[in-house]
Write a structure and sequence with these properties.
Helix content is 73%, strand content 6%. It is mainly alpha-helical.
Length: 100
């Protein structure tokens, strides 16, 4: 996850505490605008991570679960269990790759 950065008076900063922003001489309106921008960017980043996670589920883990259902319906419980295990392992990898 990227750290929120902003430019104030020609310098880059990451500290968004009120005390720090006041020490820079930032007025209250500018602080509020900056915090709204930070919140917006965080929401956008989270939405993007969720979309990537959902896409990865469809491409990687869901096929294993569908295979497990087919094998189970055909009476192949051992094969179904293998497919379920592969699906769950894929879910764990996806969650690690796309944290929320």
């Amino acid at each position: 996850m990227n750290e929120f950065t902003y430019i104030y008076d020609g310098q880059n900063y990451t500290d968004t505490t009120q005390e720090f922003m006041l020490s820079l001489g930032m007025d209250e309106k500018t602080q509020e605008d900056l915090l709204r921008q930070k919140e917006f960017e965080e929401e956008q980043a989270k939405a993007q991570r969720l979309k990537r996670r959902e896409d990865a589920y469809r491409r990687i883990s869901d096929p294993h679960f569908l295979e497990a259902q087919r094998k189970s319906a055909a009476g192949d419980e051992e094969g179904a269990e293998v497919a379920r295990t592969l699906g769950l392992q894929a879910v764990d990898r996806i969650k690690t790759q796309y944290p929320i």
